[in-house]
Amino acid sequence: MSDSQPGQRNAWHKSPAGVDPVEKGSTVKLIGGEAMACSDAEHAAGGAALELLAGAYAGAETRVLLAGPHTTALTDALADRCAAVTCLVRSHADAQALARRHERNPRVRVLCGSLDAFAPDAGHDLVLALGGLARLHGPDGTRLTWQAALDRLIGAVAGAGVLLLGVENPLGVHRLTAAGGLPAPDPAEPVGHSALVARLREAGLHVAPSYAAFADPARPTVLARTPELDAASGTVPLLAAEAAAAFGAATRRRPLLDDPRRLAGAALRAGTGAQLAPAWVVAAGRQPVCPREPLPPAFIAGGAHAAHWDTAVAYERADDGQWSRRLLSDSGAALRLVGRVTRMPELLTGRVAPDRLLEELLLAACAEHDLPTVRRLLRGYADWLAAAPPSGHLAFATCDNVLTDGVRHELLDPSWHLSAPIPVDEVLARALRGLAVTLLTTGLPHPWPASLDVDSLTVSLSAAAGRPLTREAARGAVALECEIQAARWLLPEQAEQELRCELGTVTARHTALAARDWRAMTGAMDRLAAQLAEARDEVAWWEERVRTSNREHERHLHRYQNSRSFMVGRAVTAPLRLARQTVRKVAGK
């Protein structure tokens, strides 16, 4: 929603002199300020969640303006559904790609240029700028202020039309935890959700309840209405778990300052999830805004897996205050299968307990070195697994997929299962080894010695759970973990083998299996330094004990050698010593 690299703008330039930038037969209309070299396709806004949100405001007679780069899936869906679609992009390469893709569709028109050269006419029923306003400015055009750019888009909205605007949060969790460079903030851009809504209302617009977006600002997979992120809402633990899964998928193997999953969860529980969300999607219009199709309070489209498994799920609150979920389309209920791993989306319907993730509770107890709580949580979990009937669903009952209130346990996502049930000890080994990998690779504090490897830590966790496992059983869980991960991410055979090697050789310094955040790494280094200092102090104490003992022995020996009994003994044994020396001399000759 803002340029990913500040220096990238230097790569934008016009076409060389004397070269016609419009290809023969192209339907692209140049309006001025075009960028001829680079493409915004990598940062295009879209994804299944935004497609569902945009589709709720689009109809067969809707005239749409797509301002800025949007994914081809989103553009195709609107082009097939709506009466007319106008695409405004600054990149000439992106404009040509759009024109070629829709050359047989007369309802699609492509404009290429900067927003300052765009002359809007208030004839669009739906204006979408889901990627924000930053990528609407060309390198040679006049860069409008945020408010001026907003006014330009508002001018394109019909009297009863709707503006769907995506705004990246400059103080979002993704920025607070990022390790790389960030673009310079726009001082004219509103900071905070309340400021954004106020600016839209000052522009004379009615604002509908906006959605907070997690975790990628341009392609979020979790959307929730901002009032639902209040700490008093019973769905906050559920959304915290879904947001954590979204951040885990979005930040895999990336360097971070801090783990966004923990920060997002803490923000949601504190009632500040809307303020720290990576982005907001706001619907506004000159008249009160109402979607053509009802939108749920929260919905998830996508997640921590490959797109092959995606399905859209809505969270809704019943009259009794309980939360339930349902599929948003019948097409998403189709059975999905890869090897032994199967997903049945129809199981994602029904009520959901508003409890917290077992992994979250365990990590909090480990950080406090609260072994009684760790044992209580693990034993309750192990007993629940042992009491459940054999099922392929239990293979996915890992600590990061189980909701609990400390007594009751429930799968967060029950749609996954293996085609054949597996033994409880194998399920427990996979879950506890996954927790041990998390503790080691993320540098989180825990009450066990830092010298333990992943298998030894798994054995310790199983002992705390009351179902001791051997190191061989812990290592045996690697095969099951690789099979499931390879299926969920559709990994090729070589990548699966690499993952197997990584999981089999996990150490505290292993950085490939998780996004390493510098704060956790610094904390781990501090803990290791403290443990090393304690070990050095212990070694120094034992060395001093040995020196003291040696001095004590020497003093006792000196006293003994000067005693009368020792002198008498020496006098009695003197002839024997003399005889022995004489024998040795004779034998030597």
Tell me what portion of residues adopts beta-strand conformation.
Answer: 15-25%
Radius of gyration (Å): 33 Å
How helical, in percent, are the residues?
Answer: 25-40%
Largest sheet: 14 strands, mixed
Taken from the alpha-carbon principal axes, the silhouette is elongated
CATH architecture label name of the largest domain: 3-Layer(aba) Sandwich
- The CATH class of the largest domain: Alpha Beta
The tally of beta strands, per DSSP, is: 20
Mean pLDDT: 85
CATH superfamily caption of the largest domain: Vaccinia Virus protein VP39
Low-confidence stretches: 2-26, 509-515
The chain-level structural class is alpha+beta
Coiled coil: 525-552
Keywords: Coiled coil
InterPro entries: SAM-dependent_MTases_sf (IPR029063)
Region (Disordered): 1-24
Topology overview:
Elements lengths: L27 E5 L15 H8 L7 E5 L4 H10 L2 E6 L2 H10 L6 E6 L10 E6 L16 H9 L2 E12 L4 H4 L16 H10 L3 E2 L3 E4 L7 E4 L10 H15 L9 H10 L9 E7 L12 E4 L10 E6 L5 E5 L8 E3 L2 E3 L6 E3 L3 E2 H10 L3 H17 L14 E3 L4 E3 L4 E3 L5 H18 L12 H11 L6 H19 L3 H12 L13 H44 L2 H25 L1
Helix pairs in contact: 1-2, 7-8, 9-10, 11-12, 11-13, 12-13, 13-14
Keywords: Coiled coil
InterPro entries: SAM-dependent_MTases_sf (IPR029063)
